[in-house]
Amino acid sequence: MPPVEVIAELEAEMNSAAEVLEYERAARVRDQLTSVTKAMARQELVTQRKDSFDLIAVEEDDLEAALVVLTVKRGRVTGTRSMVVDKVEDVTTAQLTGIMIGQLYGKDAPPREVLVQELPDTPELWVEWLEERRAGPVTIRVPQRGAKRRLMETARANAGEEFGRHRLKRSTDHNARAQALRSLEEALSLPQPPLRIEAYDISTIQGRDTVGSMVVFEDAMPKKSEYRRFRIKRLSGQDDFAAMEEMLDRRFAAYVSDQKRSIEERGKFAYAPSLVVIDGGMGQLGRAVKILAKYDLDIPVVGLAKRLEEVYVPGSGTPVVIPRGEESLYLLQRVRDEAHRFAVTYHRTLRGKRMVDSVLDAVPGVGPTRKKKLLREFGSLKKLRAAELVELAAVVPDGVAVDLYEALQAGPDAGQRRPAP
Q1: For labeling, which of 23, 191, 324, 419 is most exposed (least CB within 10 Å)?
Q2: Strands 64-73, 76-86: parallel, antiparallel or unpaired by DSSP?
């Protein structure tokens, strides 16, 4: 298996273990990933020309960035530094690169060459500054091919592992979670710490396959058994405001209905949240306020703007700004990202199913039974299109396989292959 695929497989296993709260297994995989990347580095971080340079790799989100800096001298790695830094300002990757260059070489002389993922803003000014620091020529560039490009990929994998380890530690730290809830209570003037947070997001492409997600965090930890997804039914076309309103209406109508039943008879929406988080600004927030008022529910609700630290609250056109570095902001980030991930995953599932149905339903001889058999065998439209005629013929009769192959190859994303004679 190629090195990059090994790293990707281990990262996926580590993240999967963390998602289901198997932190001991996640830690074991993390350690294995560290060993693999270090072993790869010893084997691959050697350039034939025996160059000397520094390489800066980054993994980041809105609030933090993990950096790995490799020092290579005469083709061998002589130093490795890794760190996780808070983004005290909302900066781009290019701006962050410039900041790190300034910090790395503020005291130490730079090498002749600095490799980065993305050029800093005004790179010519940074080159001039570095040349003054070195008293000689310096280049800053993004490696495009060869050993240096592979080295950047390995360093980026290391940065991703460092970032994943940092986020895992934060999410499992009881004191950090407790502080996040207290901080959120104070920042949003809530009556009590929000022990149950429900977050909602909408996913659609041009109004097709519009879906919504509801994710639940209890004690600042995801509770996946309480996640719910919604297929939006009451609108045609794209209207994120109306989609959000429909989803919340269905959720809280079910809650109100459940309260009229005995505890034993209550369904999947029986619990009320301590805080409702809407991914969006004042428009989406207004629809949430409307639905809560409709059912006479006194539940705090906020909307998250594009700038994560800006939180919209009902009755105020000016968002609450939570200082960067606050644990509450990291919690809101995790909640928003999880709601977005869950919505996008469901949207892709429905879109993929619709695309498969549109292709298979047009092929004579492919009915519900054969459609299920094909999907069970190949799993997705992409894999169906990649299949050879003989592979299709192993699942359906030869004549149907030929028609199916031609239909698949005629699709908008199909390749140029033709059936073998």
Answers
A1: 191
A2: antiparallel
| Distance in angstroms (rounded) separating the CA atoms of residues 60 and 279 | 20
What's the CA gap between 379 and 356, in Å, rounded? Answer: 10
- In 3D space, the residue among 88, 134, 129 whose CA is nearest the CA of residue 109 turns out to be 134
Same domain flag for 38 and 160: yes
Place of tokens 């008022």: 293
Report angle CA 119, 124, 125 to the nearest 5 degrees: 105
Last residue of a domain, one of 297, 319, 350: 350
**Full domain range(s) for residue 47:** 3-172
Buried b (16+ CB within 10 A) or exposed e, 140-164: beebeeebbebbbbbbbbbbbbbbb
- The Cα–Cα gap between 39 and 33 comes to 10
Count CA within 13 A, CB hemisphere, residue 341. 11
User: What is the per-residue DSSP string for 283-304?
Assistant: HHHHHHHHHHHHTT----EEEE
Residue 419 identity:
P
Contact 119, 21 (CB under 8 A): no
Q: What is the domain-level CATH number for residue 29?
A: 3.30.420
Whole-number pLDDT of residue 45: 44
- Is residue 30, in this structure, part of any structural domain at all? yes
How many angstroms separate the CA atoms of 228 and 368, rounded? Answer: 28
Locate 220 and state its tokens.
């600042």
Q: What is the CB neighbour count within 10 angstroms for residue 364?
A: 10
pLDDT for 27-72, tens place per residue? 777 777 776 666 555 544 446 677 889 999 998 887 888 889 988 8
Question: Both 216 and 150 in a single domain?
Answer: no
Least reliable range by pLDDT among 57-71, 334-348, 374-388: 374-388
Whether residue 299 sits in one domain with residue 196: yes
Q: Are residues 242 and 130 in the same domain?
A: no
Number of domains in the chain: 2
Residue 66 token pair = 């993990």
Residue range 78-94: average pLDDT?
Answer: 81
pTM above 0.85, yes or no: no
Note whether 80 and 194 are same-domain residues: no
Do 345 and 283 belong to one domain?
Answer: yes
Tell me the pLDDT of the chain averaged across its residues: 82
* Residue 372 dihedral angles phi and psi, to the nearest 5°: -60, -40
* Cα separations in angstroms, 229 against 35, 161, 200: 39, 30, 9
Question: Does any domain span residue 204?
Answer: yes
Looking at residue 136, what DSSP letter applies?
S
CB atoms within 10 A of CB 32: 13
